[in-house]
Design a protein that fits this description.
The chain is built from 8 helices and 7 strands; from the N terminus they run αααβαβαβαβαβαββ. The chain is of the alpha/beta class and 204 residues long. It has one domain: Vaccinia Virus protein VP39 (Rossmann fold, 3-Layer(aba) Sandwich), CATH 3.40.50. The protein has a 7-stranded mixed beta sheet, with helices on both faces. It is globular. The chain binds S-adenosylmethionine.
Amino acid sequence: MSMLPDLEGYFRRFVPPRDQFLKGLEEEAVFERIPIVGPVVAELLALLVVAMGAKQVLELGTATGYSAIYLGRALALTGGRLLTLERDPVMAARAEANLIRAGVADRVEVRTGDALRVLPELGGPFDFIFLDIDKEGYLPALPHCHRLLRPGGLLVADNVGFAAAADFNRELFLSPQWRSVPLLCLLPQHSPERDGLAFAIKVA
Ligand SMILES: C[S@@+](CC[C@H](N)C(=O)[O-])C[C@H]1O[C@@H](n2cnc3c(N)ncnc32)[C@H](O)[C@@H]1O
């Protein structure tokens, strides 16, 4: 059975369309080397939110608000809200401005602070959590994600191909508390890393 040649290039033709504002954020991220997810993963996050009918979503790692805009627009369809945590106050301010320009500021709250300090103060339940902070923070964030997710809630973690995510991966993929799947990603415009995503549902 033959494969299409240059699969990544081939699928690049089918990258979901988006508006000039989002394209501008992508260009800015390349220029400033800000590791945002690209339009394929962002659209995947939005699809998952809509498919689940998620209403309460938590994001760890906002950067300029690119993925938060996708999540916020998906939540406009479900009538939900996003809380997104960002450690860097300059980034958080940029994200807030971008969320206003994207028309989703009314359903997205950017909270400035280290997620590992903010998480213990949060109450759930959340339907969906997107984990995208420094990879060293993934393992310590995991028990909080578990506590904050409702049963059957979905955790998506980006960049699980980083060496620093190895302990997190072991915990997530081997724990009976989670039903999970690791996905190697070579998606067009995934993110600068083009590595892996983890999907896990809280089952116990
Ligand atoms: C990969 S970027 C997030 C990209 C964003 N999710 C997107 O795709 O548009 C990671 C962001 O998380 C922030 N960050 C890293 N570790 C953090 C932590 N422990 N708590 C809060 N924010 C953190 C960084 O400052 C950076 O802006």
